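User: Could you check the structure of this?
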Amino acid sequence: MIDTRVAKKYGHALFDIARRDDTILPIWKELSALRDALEKDKRFLEIMAAPQIPDDDKDRLARAVLKNAAHPVVRNFVLFLVDKRRTDYLLDIIHDYSVQLDEHLGVVEAKIISAVPLTDSELKDIIDRLERMTQKTIRHKTVVDPDILGGVVVIVGNEIIDHSVRHDLSRLRDQLMTLKVHLAA
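Assistant: Sure, the predicted structure tokens are below.
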């Protein structure tokens, strides 16, 4: 829980700086490239987390790695995290920045689960309905899960819209279980 709060605190601060300087997208471009590089090769973060490596060496390494960073805000921010010994939060901070960017741009993630692959027109119809419902642009991921039997389940943010056959059958079962049967004498 505290890890999440720390990452959000720094992520919000970085986003506020970017918004103030009107550099939200250029900073995001560099942050996403940094994220991709760090996820591909974890050695930088491992070195930054190693207690046996002196802080001065970590600072020199970070400066060498970031010397080509085009945007000084990104470079200075990462160096600040190195100085404060907070680089273990870097990927979470970048994630928080991306969440704020989506919110700023009016984009929301949706996971669309169906029993069989959806046709292009079915997917377009679902996305159009979601965009009307949320008044936001939908970025979607589709998943095929035969266990839902049919229909579709959509997860948008914290909301689940379940129009699956499995869900309908479960509801029907619950209704049947609560029926009272009166026997005629």
